[in-house]
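Reviewers of the previous submission asked for a worked example of the structure-prediction workflow described in the proposal, so we include one complete record here. The input consisted solely of the amino acid sequence. No template or homolog information was supplied to the procedure at any stage.
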Amino acid sequence: MSLPQTLGELKAAGYRTRPVKDEIRQNLIKALRGGDDLFTRKDDKGKVTSRLVGYDDTVIPQIINALLARHNIILLGLRGQAKSRILREMTSLLDDEIPIIAGSEINDDPFRPISAYGKQLIAEKGDDTPVAWIDPHARYIEKLATPDVTIADIIGDVDPIKAARGGHMLSDELTIHYGLLPRANRGIFAINELPDLAGKIQVGLFNIMQEGDVQIKGYPIRLPLDVLLVFSANPEDYTARGKIITPLKDRIGSEIQTHYPASIKEGVEITKQEAWTNRNRDYRGSPYYNQLTFLIPKAIREIVEQIAFIAREDKRVDKRSGVSQRLPITVMESVVSNAERRALLNHESVATSRVSDVYTAIPAITGKIELEYEGEQVGAERVARDLIRKACGEVFGSVFAGIDFRQTLDHFNRGNTLTISDMTSDKEALKEFQSVSGLIEAVRSGKVEKEADGAIVSACELALEGLCAMKKLARVEEHGEISYGHATPERPSRKQNFDDWTGGRLN
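From that input alone, the workflow returned the following structure tokens.
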């Protein structure tokens, strides 16, 4: 069935427009009654590809309550807490299509136009006024707040060229070049990092929310916009002493606090669905290289997630900036990439992730953490290595709880060492680990997922790294090779540079 193309056809079809907040409310009621999953992404076949994890009992119920109450909303949270994604997913609660006056810059309602253009067109053509249809994505406008944003960007400005071409006075509303907010009419207008907006821009928003009027170049213009306003901000900035004007803060209906995953399990699930690790399809049927499959042991996933959890509690990391959930996502992608590189260089058919791959992902960690003074003194790389070491210790405790490694420790206490590279093939690495007394046997009595060489090697690395984290073994890394040996005061149990080894005494 074709959609009405004129105002007359729209009237004949009995179409009725709704305010956007009522539209969202009614669609939300329908979704709740139908048991639909809110804020999920689906593919073309309707299969859920990703969802908001960890917010089912906290954030999502608060958002639902706010939308049912027809409130404007602000999401308060540190970086990497899915604030922007939540704002964008609200378009799923908009109608599939709505009619506007064709050619209107501000999505004029054919039954109640608010722009001079829309009013004049209906006055001239009546029921023959052409109608266009727009989808939810065209009704969502987002702006990242920065100090250089002007009132013209948000509200609009006089366009002298429009005035000259149309023969209008500058005070005529037809000379206005509308800003982002009017263009979001009958939709959702989102501003990320609201406190970064200059005070006068915030006043402009307050006027729109309170009175529906604005002034452009000194000319008062009545714009009763129909819009849902949604914002995001850092809690540190969104305070009475921060950079937000009180009248605007008072007009926002609901302040909703977001948060990081509450458990390792939730974090692993988020990273699993967001990180690009499913690379098998790139190797299927390729005429250029053999098939390659990927294996990421559960312990490696937990180590990557533990890094973020430990960093959020580390005194050397700035808690006001937070540790984004993007950290474990990018780290996991880097871990898989190093395993992929190793498999390609060694002509292996399976790329299994190891602890040594996590260490190669340090560049993905250092760029995601803001350091306090103490952290800056030792450097981001040193902090990142400490985070990995602690994460290995945590996971080692859960995977090998109750496992006896005394035979392995005795092997190293007798002066034996083991040197291995992150590029060593699974078969060669397994051969090296078999030379360590009791290691393979102890590992197999733990939680090893598969008997494949790569899985055993990955578990062996975890065991050695865990023993290093407990300071029972020494670990020294140089030029991509890792050496394990007996831990003594002269041989520290983690990588250190020359100054660290000497305490800076030999500068």
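Residues 4 and 10 are 5 Å apart (CA to CA). We consider this example representative of the routine output the project will generate in years two and three.
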